[in-house]
Design brief:
The structure holds 2 protein chains of 2 kinds.
Chain A (H helix, E strand, L loop, with lengths): L1 H16 L5 H16 L24 H19 L8 H23 L3 H10 L1 H11 L4 H31 L4 H4 L10 H17 L8 H8 L2 H23 L3 H7 L1 H19 L4 H21 L3 H32 L15 H14 L6 H16 L3 H24 L15 H17 L12
Helix pairs in contact in A: 1-2, 1-4, 2-3, 3-4, 3-11, 3-15, 4-5, 4-6, 4-11, 5-7, 6-7, 7-9, 7-10, 9-11, 10-11, 10-14, 11-14, 11-15, 13-14, 13-18, 14-15, 14-17, 14-18, 15-16, 15-17, 15-19, 16-18, 16-19, 17-18
Chain B lengths: L2 H23 L10 H27 L3 E10 L4 E8 L1 H24 L6 H20 L3 H19 L6 H31 L5 H7 L6 H14 L8 H4 L5 H10 L4 H8 L1 H4 L3 H23 L4 H21 L3 H28 L12 H4 L1 H15 L5 H15 L4 H25 L17 H24 L12 H4 L1 H19 L10 H8 L4 H52 L4 H20 L1
Helix pairs in contact in B: 1-2, 1-4, 2-3, 2-4, 3-4, 3-10, 3-15, 3-20, 4-5, 5-6, 6-8, 8-11, 8-13, 10-14, 10-15, 11-15, 13-14, 13-19, 14-15, 14-18, 14-19, 15-17, 15-18, 15-20, 17-18, 17-19, 17-20, 18-20, 19-22
Classes of the chains: A mainly alpha, B mainly alpha.
Chain lengths: 460, 612
């Protein structure tokens, strides 16, 4: 564990020590090396248990894919931010990269924590750099409002979790993930136990976000700079899914009935947020709402509590992480050229940036879950496990896939196809940096087709 | 492993490699040579066709069918997804047919698209499409089939929207995907049901395990999937709209290969389908309705490609009827023969459209027989094959279907609709020939008419040969899986022919009536019904999106997200806390009186508590 964590921490002094000229290239290659080393986690010898154990940290098949994704994302964020921070003074650029790095430190500790309370602390700690990224580095005044929403939704959701965790500590005497699943299941019957159940999950449901508690997400996504949007969509939302999967084991006897309304909410959210996407004019907002829709499916897959549901949820989390981050990057390439997120202002880009269109196309297809991309594997597994629970869910999930296809292609057609508007006179040509960025997003996704068990979690 | 299986597997892998090779090499950063399409792509498909003959010969000689499972792709505790290939009568025969047709179409496309700056990319798309189609056909596994299924759908999106500057092309492309997605819901439903109930997506296992289950619901799912892909009634409007794509695309995707995928799926699943009467009846009625409705629509269209498209849809309906008759092999036969003559009809219309300077309206054609004798002859051959003229390709499949229909005791209503549609086939086919080849020219005097190009003549010629002899070849070589009824009354035997001839005579009579006006205004409402496609797109394409978009805007976005969720969440927190904050704030303004009175109040309260 420390093999990754310490280099990540040491990245911070590096950022400040390295000459300005080499700042971006050094940090990029440094973080990329870290992420390449982190891939060794995927090759764990223990088939289903914990590996790379240290006193407080370990990885298991559930956290490994998310950890690898976290490490993978830092170089991508650095790559994506290079252009829009270029006009800033060098010390601010260093601060910015430091922020991104600190986020990775917290995230690694969150995903690899073996103690629930440590996970909780790191879960909360990630709020700070994210808040700074949104409110300091966003572009418009609405960013302050977005930051407030982001902070208060997440905090209000997660304070009950602290109480619930302390109660759990009182009852079982331990909060270690290594042993928690072996503690005898509790007798949960009273109303207070049900509240405790809700407290355990609420934080994660808000973080996912569940439909109804999702207002912070589109705001945060829209106002955050590109790196913020990327890490929010790719990793931070997945904290919610990860936490739910961890907590579910302890909540066993209660979950069956209590989760019904949440499943319905999540699935209904798939339809509703999908419909909102169909009417979006704002590119980033569309992608943000599409995230809510996909994470609704993930939430439903976790709450259904079958091995297929868990596997599907984990696959979809990883696949969606890469896809939505890629889409945000693409949106940002448009934004950097037209300085507007409004889709109708930048149409027909296939004419000028044909290679970008190829990336747009692949990313849209990944978003609408084209087989055999992992997105489809995840969705199909979740749909199947939901279907096994109740036949009627196919109406919602099926409708969801239809709407997803609708808005993904609407986004593609709107930005790439059609005639080029007359006001677009001189667009920057695409940079190799941008193509590299897209390739680093989409290649892992495509390569995962051939070995999906890497991101399967416990079922493998 | 048996030698025959090795030969079959090897040839399939070689076919895949041959087709994938040009796609892979095209990713090199160097620009492709301008003749890449002809020298690389067409040649690859041609050789793939010749190689696919090998398993066909093996099959014809030894009746050898085989399944090859090569690699476990995904493996959970109880559920495997494998890469597994199926070589049975359907895939072994369909692959050469598809490759043969594609070969011709690619050659034609090199002429049709020669002015397009991105012609190489166009060929690449067609090639990827072909690969997806062969994956679909040879899949022995639902997941693999789904890959091919969605692959052809997405390639159709790209190819319909080829001229992406035009709004119509983009709309048509989106429309195709969305209609297909509705069908996909059915397929996903069926796959989920199969996964949960039968616990396997391998076809042979599914067929064995499904004996004890009531399969009505998953089969309905599969029928919905086929409805979307094969443009059956209800999900049909995308097919005529897809004619926005270039003509080679219409010839390849929307007549001979992709649109038959739905029927092909049902043929594949026929072991599950054959024992379920409900599903069969649904197929029968759906098919009959489709074939009649789309034939009706074809009667009054003026766009030559639209007519051919509707006739495709009508033939797909006929195939669906055949599935409903529980005669999957006959449906498959019709897929094969239909591929030849329908692709040829499209190529002929493409040639004519190109010759008349991109004119698609048949009212502005005429007299083409003198100017493009070869193309119009082939157009006539294709139309005759389509109507089921004896001993052309269509006859062998269509006549057999109608005989099977006549001798079955299933549903007289469906029978009647299908026969009516058959006579309509003759009518609209005659209409095309009458307007395009016969009569006097009605086009602009300066049209670049020239069909004397080997890349036009040869593909059409090859397909014409196919339209003439393919039916005979296939029927005389394959063993029927079901015993056909051999003896029947003369009236039933000749029914198909009779209704076709009646249709033809009626059409001729109507054509001659157009020159002698009896009424000042003809009856307009039936014409409008047919010409406006039964008012179906008008209602569905406005109402459904309107409702859904209104849901998105007014309910989901404005009412819930921007009003209620804001109101009961963040705004409520603000309004609840603000008065308290204001009060506390106002108290502490440095006024000694307030402080003192608060102090004494607290002090008194504490004293009271203490004394008590």
């Amino acid at each position: 564990m420390l093999k990754i964590l310490l280099p990540t921490i040491m990245l911070v002094p590096t950022i400040w020590a390295v000459p300005a000229k080499y700042l971006w290239s050094t940090t990029l290659s440094y973080s990329l090396i870290i992420s390449l080393i982190s891939l060794t986690w995927l090759k764990s010898s223990a088939e289903s248990g914990w590996s790379f154990l240290s006193p407080y940290m370990a990885t298991d098949p559930l956290s490994t894919p998310l950890l690898a994704l976290t490490c993978w994302l830092l170089p991508l964020m650095i790559l994506a931010s290079q252009n829009h921070t270029a006009p800033e003074p060098i010390s601010r650029q260093r601060t910015y990269i430091t922020l991104l790095t600190s986020l990775q430190i917290f995230l690694i500790m969150a995903f690899s924590a073996t103690e629930v309370i440590m996970f909780y602390i790191m879960f909360e700690a990630t709020l700070i750099p994210t808040l700074v990224i949104i409110t300091r580095w966003g572009n418009q005044t609405e960013r302050l409002n977005a930051g407030t929403y982001f902070l208060f939704y997440t905090l209000a959701g997660s304070l009950p979790l602290l109480v619930a965790l302390l109660l759990l500590q009182n009852n079982t005497g331990t909060l270690s993930l290594l042993t928690l699943q072996y503690t005898p299941s509790m007798q949960l019957s009273s109303f207070a136990d049900k509240l405790w159940w809700a407290g355990c999950l609420l934080a994660f449901l808000v973080k996912m976000p569940l439909y109804g508690a999702h207002l912070w997400l589109p705001k945060a996504h829209v106002e955050a700079p590109i790196a913020g949007s990327m890490v929010l969509a790719a990793v931070l939302l997945k904290l919610g899914g990860y936490g739910m999967m961890r907590m579910m084991i302890m909540l066993e006897p209660l979950t069956k009935e209590l989760s019904y309304p949440f499943i319905i909410f999540a699935l209904w959210g798939v339809i509703m947020t999908g419909s909102i996407c169909l009417r979006q004019t704002d590119l980033k907002s569309l992608i943000a709402y599409s995230s809510v829709s996909h994470m609704g499916l993930v939430a439903a897959g976790i709450l259904i509590q079958t091995s297929w549901g868990f596997t599907g949820a984990l696959i979809l989390m990883i696949a969606h992480g890469l896809t939505s981050s890629a889409l945000f990057c693409l949106a940002n390439t448009n934004y950097e050229r037209t300085h507007s997120r409004t889709m109708i202002l930048a149409r027909g880009l296939q004419m000028v940036l044909p290679l970008m269109t190829a990336w747009w196309f692949i990313a849209s297809l990944a978003n609408l879950a084209l087989p055999p991309l992992p997105n489809l594997m995840g969705e199909l597994m979740i749909i199947t496990s939901l279907f096994h629970w109740s036949w009627w869910t196919i109406a919602l999930t099926g409708g969801g896939t239809l709407i997803t296809a609708g808005y993904s292609l609407y986004m593609f057609l709107m930005t790439q196809r059609g005639p080029l508007p007359a006001h677009i006179i001189s667009l920057d040509p695409t940079h190799s940096r941008e193509h590299l960025l897209m390739a680093l997003h989409l290649l892992p996704l495509i390569l995962l087709i051939s070995k999906p068990e890497l991101i399967w979690g416990w079922t493998a | 492993m048996h030698l025959t299986s090795i030969m079959m597997a090897t040839s399939l892998i070689i076919i895949f490699f041959l087709l994938a090779f040009p796609v892979l090499t095209s990713f090199s950063p160097h620009p492709l040579p301008s003749n890449w399409a002809l020298t690389q792509v067409k040649t690859a498909v041609k050789w793939a066709f010749f190689i696919s003959i090998l398993p066909l010969c093996l099959f014809l000689n030894e009746d050898a069918e085989t399944i090859i499972t090569s690699w476990t792709w995904m493996n959970t505790h109880t559920f495997d997804v494998n890469i597994s290939l199926k070589f049975d009568i359907y895939s072994i025969i369909f692959t050469p047919v598809a490759l043969y047709v594609t070969w011709s179409i690619l050659e034609f496309a090199s002429w049709y698209m020669h002015a397009d700056p991105n012609m190489n990319r166009f060929f690449k798309y067609l090639l990827i499409f072909l690969i997806a189609m062969i994956i679909l056909v040879t899949a022995n596994n639902m997941f693999q089939l789904f890959i091919g299924w969605e692959g052809v759908g997405i390639m159709s999106f790209l190819l319909i929207g080829w001229w992406y500057g035009r709004a119509d092309a983009n709309t048509a492309a989106l429309q195709a995907v969305i209609y297909n997605r509705v069908g996909d819901i059915g397929l996903i439903f069926a796959m989920a049901w199969i996964a949960t109930s039968l616990n396997s997506w391998e076809m042979q296992q599914m067929f064995t395990l499904s004996k004890d289950f009531d399969l009505t619901y998953p089969l309905i799912g599969l029928i919905v999937a086929a409805t979307g892909k094969s443009a059956q009634f209800g999900l049909h409007p995308w097919l005529p709209s897809a004619m926005e794509g270039p003509t080679p695309v219409s010839a390849l995707l929307h007549s001979s290969t992709m649109v038959v995928a739905g029927i092909f799926l049902l043929i594949r699943m026929s072991p599950m389908l054959e024992n379920n009467q409900t599903a069969l009846t649904i197929c029968l009625c759906l098919g009959a309705l489709t074939t009649l409705f789309t034939a009706t629509c074809a009667l009054t269209q003026n766009d030559i490609k639209k007519i051919v498209a509707f006739s495709t849809s009508s033939q797909l309906g006929l195939m669906m009827v055949t599935i409903g008759l529980n005669q999957p092999q006959l449906a498959f036969l019709h897929i094969c023969t239909h591929a030849f003559f329908k692709a040829m009809l499209f190529l002929c219309s493409g040639s004519i459209i190109h010759s008349l300077n991109d004119e698609q309206d048949i009212r502005k054609m005429g007299g083409m027989h003198h100017l493009t004798p070869f193309t119009s002859s082939c157009l006539t051959i294709g139309s005759l094959a389509l109507t089921g003229t004896p001993f052309l390709a269509g006859f062998f499949s269509k006549d057999a279907i109608i005989e099977a229909l006549n001798t079955s005791y299933l549903n007289a209503w469906a029978l009647f609709l299908t026969l009516l549609a058959t006579s309509f086939t003759a009518i609209y086919s005659l209409r095309v020939i009458f307007f395009v080849s016969m009569g006097h020219p009605r086009f602009n005097p300066l049209s670049p008419i020239n069909e004397n190009n080997p890349t036009v003549i040869n593909p059409i010629k090859r397909l014409a040969w196919g339209s003439i002899i393919a039916g005979l070849l296939i029927t005389s070589n394959i063993t029927p899986l079901k015993t056909p009824v051999m003896s029947m009354p003369l009236l039933l035997k000749t029914a198909a022919l009779a209704v076709t001839i009646i249709g033809l005579l009626t059409a001729l009579e109507l054509a001659s009536l157009t020159n002698k006006q009896y009424k000042p205004t003809p009856k307009l409402s039936p014409h409008h019904f047919s010409n406006m496609l039964g008012f179906f797109p008008m209602v569905i394409h406005r109402l459904t999106p309107k409702l859904n978009l209104a849901l998105g805007q007014t309910i989901a976005s404005q009412t819930i997200d921007q009003t209620w969720l804001e109101k009961i969440g963040p705004k409520a927190t603000t309004t609840l806390n603000l008065p308290m904050i204001t009060t506390t704030n106002n108290i502490q303004q440095g006024m000694i009186k307030t402080y003192l009175s608060l102090f004494f109040f607290t002090f008194g309260l504490a004293l009271l508590l203490l004394l008590y």
